[in-house]
Structure formats: C-alpha cells, structure tokens
Amino acid sequence: RFSATTGMENQQTSVNLRGNAWHNDAAPSTDAEEYLEDIRFSKQSKGGIVSCIGDCCLGTFQTLVGACALLAEYVTGLCRCSKRTLLILGSLIALIIFAFSITAIVKRVNGDDEAIPAAPELDASINDPMRFNAIRDTVLESAFTDAQHVDTRGTAQNLAIRWLTDDDPAKMEPDDDLILQRYALATFFFSTYVSTEYKDQNDNSTGNDDFEWNNMEHWMTDKGICMWYGVTCPPHLHEGTEEVVYNGNNDVIHLNLTDNNIRGTIPSEIEALENLETLDLGRNRLEGSIPVSIANMEFLTELYLEENALTGTLPPQFGNLVGLRELFVGTNRLMGTIPADLNKLTNLRALGLDENFFTGTIPYLWDLKELLILYLDSNQLTGTIHWEVKHLGQLVDFRVRKNFLTGTLPFEMDLLTHLELLYLDDNQFQGTIPEMFAKLPRLEEIQMYKNQFTGTLPQSIASLDDLKVLYLDNNNFLGTVHEEYGNLRDVHTMFLFNNQLTGTIPTTIGQMEDLRDVQIYNNQFVGPLPSEIGNCFQLEKLEIQDNQLTGQLPSSMGGLEKLSLLKIYRNNFVGSVPAEVCNLKDVFDLTFLAADCNSDNGGTVSCDCCNTCYP
Fold first, then answer.
1. Pick the residue with more confidence: 483 or 44?
2. What is the longest distance spanned by two Cα atoms in the chain?
3. Beta strands of 403-547 (E only): which ranges?
4. Which of 23, 154, 303, 458 keeps 20 to 30 A from 567, CA to CA?
C-alpha cells in the first residue's frame, strides 16, 4: 500500500493508492467488464447511426434538387439560359453541398475514436472503472497529455488519474473543468515527490524518503488546491471579504515551490495550468529537460527554474511567451546555443542564463529594450559584445564574465546610462577600455579582471561617486594610478595587481576612507608608501608586495586598528617596522605581517613582529 507522508507537526497527509495490484497483471473486475461491454456496444451501434444519418441526407439531397428546379423556372424568366441548363447547374451545386455534408457528419461520428484512443483493459485495483475512464476522457480531450503516458501503469500521469479516481477525498466531477488543474498538480506531485520506477514489481512500497518535499502542506488532501502550499488562485469573495487563501478549487495563477527539495522532472502537463502567471521552481533538484509545453502558457509573466540540474537545450519556443517579464534558468546544465527567438520577448525585464554550458555567440537580443538584468556569465560563449548593445539603455546589471569573449569593448557602451553592475571579467577582451565611465554615473561595481586589456587606466573612473568595487587586476595596464582616484570615497575593494603599473602610489589614497581591501602587488610602483595611508581607518588588508617601493614604513599605519593582513615583502623598504605597527599585533587584529626581514639572505628591513621574513 503506497503512502506519501509529510513530517509536519499536528498534520499527516497520506496518499493511498493501492500500489500492490497495479504492478501485476489481473483480470478485469465484473464492473470493468460491464463497462467495457458498454463501450463495445456503443461502437457497434455507430453503424446504425451512420445509416440513419445517410437516409436523412438523401432526403435532404432530393429536397435540394426539387428546390433547384423551382429556382430554375424563376431564373429562366430573368435570363436567356434554358431551364435544363440551370437545373443541371443547380443539381451539381446541391451534390457538392451534399458530399461535404455527409463527409463532415461521418468524420464527426468517427472523429472521437481518433481524438481519444480507446482505454485499455483496466486492472482490478481500480475501484471505479467508469469514473476512471470518464476522468481519462476529460484529460485526453484537453490535449495536455499523451494517452500512452496516461495508460502506462506507474507513470506520474497514470498515478494522478488513479488518485483522482479512487483516493482523492474531494471527488470532483469528471466533467468539471477545474479537475484539470487538480490533475496537473497531482501529476507534478507524482513526478517529483516519489520515484515512479519501481525496483521490485512485487513490492508495493514506492515511497522514498529522499524525495520528500520540505513543505507539502495540504497537497493531495481533501482541501481545495487553493490551500495547497505554494499554490495561489485568484482572490475569492467570502461574506464581503476578499480572501487570497481559501479552501476551494480555482484556476492556479501562481505556483511557488522554490527551495523545497523537489526532485524528479517537470511534467509537460504543467501547461494545464493555463492561467498561470508565475512558475517558481528555483533552487531545487529538478532534472531532465525543460518541457516545451511551457511555451504554450500564454499568461506566464515570471519563470524561475534556476539552481536545479536541468539538462537539454532552452526551447526556442519560449520566444512565444510574449508576456514574459522575468526568465531565470541559471545554474543548470543546459547546452546548445541561446535561442535568437528570445529577442521576441520585448516585455522582458530580467534574463538569467548564467552558469550553464551555452555555446556560440551572443544572439541578437538588442530589441529587449526594457531589459534591466542580463546574466550570460559562466558559459562557453564566444565572439564579441556587439555595438548594438547600446539599445539596452535601461540595463542595470550586465554580466558576461567567465566566457571566451574576445575583441574590444564597443564605445557605444557609454549609452548604458543606468548601469550599476558591470561584470566582464575572465574573458579574452583586448585593447584599451573606452573612456566611457563619465556617462555611467550609477556604476557601483566594475569587474574586468583576467582579460588582456592594455593601455592606461581609464581616468573617467574617478568620476564614479557611487563606485564600491574596482577589479582591474590580471591585465596588461601601463602607466600610473591617477591622483583623481582619490575621489572614489565609497570604494571598499580595489584590486590592481598583476599589471605593469608604474609611478608612485598617490597620496590621495588617504581620501578613500572606506577602503578595506587593497591589492596592488606585482606591479612596478616606486617611491615611498604615502603616510596618508594611515587615514584609511577601515583598512583590513594591504598587499603591496612585489613592487619597487622604497623608504620606511610610515608610523601612521599604527592607527589602522582593523588591519589583519599586511604584505610588504619583495620591495626596497629599509629600516625597522615601526613599533606602532607591531602594536597592532599585540592589541588589535593584525594576524599576518610579512616583510624583507631575513637579514641572512640580504633582507633590508628589521622586524621583530613579522610572521614571515623574506627573501
């Protein structure tokens, strides 16, 4: 006996589906035989019905010919045509009408057999065969599901109809339109809550603790689906009060089961929720492909399938979801190219395709002028960023990091005036970065590390009053750090390491009062470390090793009470590490200090508190 049970306190939800008999061939019950006999009799009687209809049509034809004769006499008086000619013409027209009529009638009579395949013989485990077949007919007439899936024992679709037949306490009428909503949810449940591949055909235990949802309150109970966890229906008026959660069945408009430990696959029957506006199945463990049938859900505005294990390709038919505003399928295992049909989704505000295995170039998406978020990062995309990216003027968050993109950045990017986050790192971009930042005043994060950029650091970056993160490391930048960078008072993280920067560290660094992490190692900086660094009271990490800095470490650094890591080795510093700096280890948070203090190997710094001495 199959059961699926929640672990909720004070509530136990059970789904009893008499699993033992399902997996063994059994002779039909007496009731089933009678029901099938009724079906056979109904089919045999169709021949008589067709004959009757034929007689009626023959009479109709004779009437049409007689009418044509009368019409011929009338028309003869109006024109020069002979009565015989008009009679022949009218008879031909009547014959054509008759032929079309009888064809349509016969097709109508026999059409049901073509649209709905005959039900297979039912096994004895079904208590109510007539109800089963009635629900089956309703489901198949909807065209949301395939007869083979419905009729194959053990499939999610078959389990759902069996549950609706015998075990659903709600006992909805088979011809109730809303039974399809309940069927779709039940099919989803059996596709994701339990394994429908039975290890032992003689074992009636089909439950699997690993498949238990985190929350399945009211699912598969007598409660209306509008009370099932994660299900939202249109508001319901009760005694003058509008209720959002109520015990009833209605069209499902939102299905939100995010982060609910849902496994298995998404059944194509999900499209039976044809008024659905939001489908959120993100952060679960779903596998298999994304059903193409989702593309038929014309009212869908939000689709979240991110952070699962979905495979296959992204259906190009999704371009038909013209009302879609948000589409997130990131962090899955999707492959193939990004469908160009997505460019039809002109109402789209957010598109997340990140962390998959998409290949090819970035398709033409430049008609998505309402787009605010575009995540294409962590794929295997090639090619360049097209200059027509300028049409995405509302874009706030643009991420193409961790791909194989090449070429230079288009100057037209300065038209993305609403941009706040720009992630271009870990690609193969080349050339100089355009001086575009003065026109991008809202930027808060710039991540362009691990590319092949050359030239000098863009001076226009200094105009970004809201900038907080600046990652330009691991490139081939030359020249100096502009004094104006001291105006970046909100920057808390600045990485410029592994470049070829020269000159001195600007004294204006002392104006960057929010600095917490500064990494400018492995460059060619010269001169002393400015004493103004002591004004960066939020500083936690300072890595300036592998440069050509000279002089003594400034004692003003003793005021950096939050400093936890300091690396100054492989430079040309001399003298002693100030006692004020060593005091940071004794009293405050400094846990690691490394300098050129190995005098036996030519170290030029004296340090009594260093953790590691070089060279």
1. 483
2. 131
3. 421-423, 430-431, 445-447, 452-453, 469-471, 493-495, 517-519, 526-527, 541-543
4. 458
The letter for the amino acid at 378 is: S
Q: Where does the pLDDT of residue 26 fall: very low under 50, low under 70, confident under 90, or very high at 90 and above? A: very low
pLDDT (0 to 100) of residue 88: 61
Strand (E) or helix (H) holding 550: strand 548-551
pTM: 0.80
Identify which of 448, 449, 440 has the alpha carbon closest to the alpha carbon of residue 467: 440
In degrees, rounded to 5, the angle at the alpha carbon of residue 238 between the alpha carbons of residues 234 and 243 is 40
| Nearest one of 316, 314, 310, 262 to 288, comparing CA atoms | 310
Tokens standing for residue 585: 């280890």
| Residues written for the chain | 615
Q: How confident is the model at residue 238 (pLDDT cuts 50, 70, 90)?
A: confident
Provide the pairing of β-strand 565-567 with 285-287: unpaired
Residue 94 has a pLDDT of 56
For 184-261, strand residue ranges (E) read: 231-232, 236-238, 241-243, 254-256
Q: In which residue are the tokens 């939100």 written?
A: 256
Give the model's pLDDT for residue 243.
Answer: 85
Secondary structure in 3-state letters for 32-72: HHHHHHHHHHHHHCHHHHHHHHHHHHHHHHHHHHHHHHHHH
Phi and psi (nearest 5°) for 24? -130, 140
Nearest to 254 by CA among 275, 268, 227, 240: 275
Share of the chain above pLDDT 90, in %: 74
Sequence-separated (6 or more) residues with CB below 8 Å from residue 157: 139, 145, 146, 149, 150, 187, 267, 269
Task: Name the token pair of 368.
Answer: 């998505």
Q: Please say whether the beta carbons of 254 and 231 come within 8 A.
A: yes
Give the C-alpha distances (Å, rounded to integers) separating 348 from 78, 83, 322, 328: 65, 67, 8, 11
**Residue 31 burial by CB count (10 A; 0-12/13-18/19+): exposed, middle or buried?**
middle
CA distance 162 to 167: 7
CB 353 within 8 A of CB 338: yes
User: For residue 167, which amino acid is it?
Assistant: D
Contact indicator for 19, 158 with CB cutoff of 8 Å = no
Q: Which residues, including other chains, have CB under 8 Å from residue 114's CB and lie 6 or more apart?
A: none
Measured in whole angstroms, how far is the alpha carbon of residue 518 from the centre of its chain?
Answer: 36
The answer to whether 163 and 186 are in contact (CB under 8 A) is: yes
- Among 42-56, 74-88, 422-436, which is the least confidently predicted range? 42-56
pLDDT class for 205, splitting at 50, 70, 90? very low
- The SS3 assignment for 300 reads coil
- The answer to whether 307 and 281 are in contact (CB under 8 A) is no
- Separation of alpha carbons 324 and 331, rounded Å: 20
Gap between the terminal Cα atoms of the chain: 74
Would you call the peptide bond into 615 cis, given omega within 30 degrees of 0 as the criterion?
A: yes
